[in-house]
Amino acid sequence: MTIAVIDYGMGNLHSVAKALEHVTHEHVVVTRDARRIHGATRLVLPGQGAIRDCMGELERTELRGLVEEQLDQQAKPLLGICVGQQMLHDHSEENGGIDCLGFMGGEVRRFPADMRDDQGHRLKVPHMGWNLVRQHHAHPLWRGIDDQEHFYFVHSYYVDAADDAQVFGTTDYGRVTAHVATGRDATFAVQFHPEKSSRAGLKLLENFVQWTP
Question: Name one GO molecular function term (predicted).
Answer without folding.
Answer: imidazoleglycerol-phosphate synthase activity
